[in-house]
Amino acid sequence: MSGKIVCTLNEVWKGSQKELSQKSGVNKNTLTAWFHNKIKRMDLDTLARICAAASVTPGDILVFIPEQDKKDRALQTILSVKDFFKKSTLRKILIDGFELSAEDADKLLSEYF
Fold it and tell me: For the chain, what are the domain ranges?
């Protein structure tokens, strides 16, 4: 089974990237990649430092999206996590993780919010 991992750090961390960089010791350029879901390789030490500094767990900032029919899986994901995430976070997951268009993501979200 394959899929992809979507990072939602920008939704969880309410401070600035500079503040998180100072608190975690993680380079600002590395954090920018995390904030914009552009991570090429995940370093576990970096993940641990981000989680410790932000007082979160990896499950709070990483969402695994298995390969399946995108819209069916997207719907299942929305229904299973809609009480835990803001609408904007779910929209990001749908667009980045499921590679839905913004229009399709908005349409799907409008049915449940």
Answer: 3-62, 68-110
On whether the CB atoms of residues 24 and 50 are closer than 8 A, the answer is yes
Residues 43, 45: Cα–Cα separation, whole Å: 6
CATH code for the part of the protein at 3-62: 1.10.260.40
pLDDT digits (tens, 9 = 90+) for 54-66: 999 999 999 887 7
Residue 58 token pair = 């990896």
Task: Give the pLDDT confidence of 42-85 residue by residue, as tens digits.
Answer: 899 999 999 999 999 999 999 887 766 667 777 777 777 777 77
Read off the pTM: 0.63
Q: How far apart are CA 63 and CA 74, in angstroms?
A: 12
